[in-house]
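Many introductory courses stop at the sequence. We go one step further.
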Amino acid sequence: ALKRQGEHNQAATIIQGSLSEFRMLNASYWEAQTYRWLSEILVARGDITIFERISQNLKLARIAGERLTLANSLVGYAGILLGNPEDAMNHIEEADLLFRQVGSQFNTSYFILAELEWLKGEHQKANQIYLELEKRHSLIGEKYMRSDVIANLGLIAMEEGELLEAQEYFERALLIAEELKDRVFISWRLSELGKLFFLLGDMDNSKQKFTESISFAWDISPVQKLQPLILFISTIFSQRPEISARLLGALNTLFQK
């Protein structure tokens, strides 16, 4: 509850205490779960890197041996291996097998598989995976991944120049984020619309969406701010590359305050 309320330091102290107790008890499953919660705060505070967090999550999950925890950790690790598709695919295949063994409805391995196809330029294959994921998560009432999946469909459509189709996807993804009342997801979805309106030549709407995105991003962690920040800078770069680096530095400094 403290973590959700933004009381990260107090939450970290309590979770760290629990983590120490589980280690003393050799309760490897609960150690893995507790570290996952703690590491989110440590990354947000800048105490550890995302790579360190994900690597340790996988290490502890393998020690614990619980299949669902291990599957999710494998997917997380595959996500940082996208530059090495073969290695990422090995982790995804292992994760997919574990998800199937436990009969999980939340098989997140397909999300990374879609990204791998997207990176290869196989937009049609990526779209097919995302559409199937969107249908599956809609049926079970899940909204977080569904918002991301629909937004990624919008990003692919935007890359292909189908801007009106992309707008429809982004607006659907934003609606879901607003239903969740999640500031991170709302910020991300608004920044995607800001980029889109820029490409449509609607500068007023673009400025408005980026402004709203930055407003929502104000209270979230520096890591979570990267997506709207990168979209904003890439939009400026397309028109004024000579000022984008200075803007990036200035905005990053602003976000750190």
